[in-house]
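Re: that chain you flagged

S.,

Sorry for the slow reply, it's been a week of failed gels. I finally had a moment to sit down with the sequence you sent. For the record, here it is as I used it:
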Amino acid sequence: MSAGVATSVMPPPTGSGYDSTVEFQLEPPVRRGVVVVPSIDRQERLSALAATGGLQDADQALLVTSYLSPALVNACRSLGVNAIDESGNAFVKDGKTLILISGRPRANELRRPSLWSKRSLQVILALLAKPALLRQGRRTIAMFAGVSTGTAQATVQTLLQRKDVVERRDGLAFTNFGRLLDEWVTLYPSLLRQSLKLGRYRATELNWWADMAPSDEWMWGGESAAALMTNYLKPALLTVYCTNGIPPQIISRGRLRPDPAGNVEFLKTPLQLDRTPGLIDNVVYPVLVYADLVASGDSRNLETAQMIREQYIQHGN
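Prediction finished late last night. Pasting the structure tokens below so you have them in one place:
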């Protein structure tokens, strides 16, 4: 990356959660903790990161990503997010010091690491949803994630190389669960979620869904799951994760009609559906609910996402 300002990169402070530390050699020097996010495709994702990722401490953090369009640089300025990309586009503000660079073309992209393929995202989701899988065989991980054993092996190996997980006496363990979660959640909407869509429908009634009996063939996700988990959110969009296509009982119960802009969406589940101890039986894993809420970019959904993260996915082990 080149922003026309000399920089030096140093290890992050122990326990800070940052990927590294960068110092801009200005007068006086400007130092930031680096949060790496491989790709940001739209402003809603940036807003979600600013609200729920490692960027809340705007005076200390620097977002580093592959490319920031002029619109995203402007969004960084509006949100107060210090950021820089591989081409040198940047917004960094420290007191009266300002670095603002916009409009540089996208740098020649390196081949995306195999870690960030659709199948690998499924493996990582499985590990984030059930961290105990780290201490089980690759075949078990693969079956739960719905991928080949080779994909599970390659993904875990890459996580080891990146030091997202480490080998301990009792098996593998996350080194920074929260950082990997943030990275996965950022990429989920564009790299995996789009491919899961089965159809969208509209329901005319509002309260037909909440008391439906649990099923092995589907579970609530997104705003609908969050409403059941927190009693805080009134869902505008109902999300259903399905194992064997769109369940006819939901279509008939909700008197649903096909509508590409409807308020009920059906998605193919990206991993085996299973009940989470301590949760309502018919909601998906908290990690997936959290990802759906963050992907929406809606401010109330982001607030609810933070509640779910703190209450249900605080710990990786």
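What I noticed first: Residues 114-191 form a domain with the Arc Repressor Mutant, subunit A fold (CATH 1.10.10.10).

Talk soon,
D.
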